[in-house]
Amino acid sequence: MLLTRPADGVPPVVETPAALRAAADALAAGTGPVAVDTERASGYRYSQRAYLVQLRREGAGTALVDPVALDGRLEPLVTALDGTEWVLHAASQDLPCLAELDLRPSRLFDTELAGRLAGFERVSLGALVERVLGYQLEKGHSAVDWSRRPLPEDWLVYAALDVELLISLREAMHAELQRQGKLDWALEEFEAVRTTEPPAPRAEPWRRTSGIHRVRSPRQLAAVRSLWEARDAVARDRDLAPSRVLPDSAIVQAAQVSPKTEAELVALPVFGGRQQRRRASTWLQALRAARRLPADELPAPASANDGPPPTNRWADRDPDAAARLSAARTALSEIAERNTLPTENLLLPDLVRRTCWSPPENRDVESVAALLRAKGAREWQISLTADALSRALRTESADPRM
């Protein structure tokens, strides 16, 4: 059945302190868990702030809260939600922008993660709702500019539908996980998501520029860095997504060509547009700064990496490590298949690689379990994998060179 409208209609957007207090009172008087979702303006704005917060609770209905109109001051909502269980889909995407509003769950149920642990192949909200509840959601506005005001009616319908069935989905997935004997695993995972600190900023974020692999020399890399930093400053100042200020492809091309005059710059694709002509002096200044750098200040060809090398080089650099990784992957794949789990949810691939490259001195089960625990693995993961991983770490290469 296609669901095109919320059962109770679309509520008015909460955009005044009085309306916020009324919505908070209604939510506080409701019962059971609270469905929560947010809408951001990724691809349009520099910030990842929430431009709309959707909430729904039994007995309270749905609330659509505009944190921008309220200047981010949602104290009544913070109080109303204190101590409640939140239901989110792919919670790690929403929790950071909710934390900016001082909204943090006391308990969490993540329906997307529940679907993964249940072994479902498709775990989008629409796919789960259709499979588990038999409804199809009206979709189509996930990638729109949610910073736009006023928000169109059909966008608000979409936003309200995102929390319309979330509590029912939570109940169904809770029962499914219990049936499969995975509920305790899921509760550990939900708590890990709830309590995980946001990652530290990347040391050299400019190295993620798309197409940077085509840039060869340190001088050209310096130009990429300089242009990236100039673009980032403009994007932050204007609260625009960096790609809307200058695409990565233009940065890479300018670094390769290294234009020295405005005429040379605007002759390049993208830079000849009206918007880029207005910023030509900014881009030329960035390129000049890169050209003037002394050799000892040029960036290294590759970023510093505290992890193991790419796995396609292991056989040459450390055949025993390659043999350990192969054995570990085979063993973990078998465990995941037996338990109907994605292998990446059984144990993080990066943790497996690091453990196989630099195993503990003692490779018994207890030592391996201690290492996994120290690296953030959950107890259910350790209980399933420590023994098999311990055996894999004792694998040696059959390479005749060793």
TrEMBL record:
Domain HRDC: 217-297
Gene3D superfamilies cross-referenced by the UniProt entry: HRDC domain (1.10.150.80), Ribonuclease H-like superfamily/Ribonuclease H (3.30.420.10)
Superkingdom of origin organism: Bacteria
InterPro entries tied to this protein: 3'-5'_exonuclease_dom (IPR002562), Exo_C (IPR041605), HRDC-like_sf (IPR010997), HRDC_dom (IPR002121), HRDC_dom_sf (IPR044876), RNase_D-like (IPR051086), RNaseH-like_sf (IPR012337), RNaseH_sf (IPR036397)
Signal sequence, renumbered to the chain: none
Region annotated Disordered, chain positions: 294-317
Any Pfam family: DNA_pol_A_exoN
PANTHER family referenced in this protein's UniProt entry, alphabetically: RIBONUCLEASE D (PTHR47649)
UniProt name for this protein: Ribonuclease D
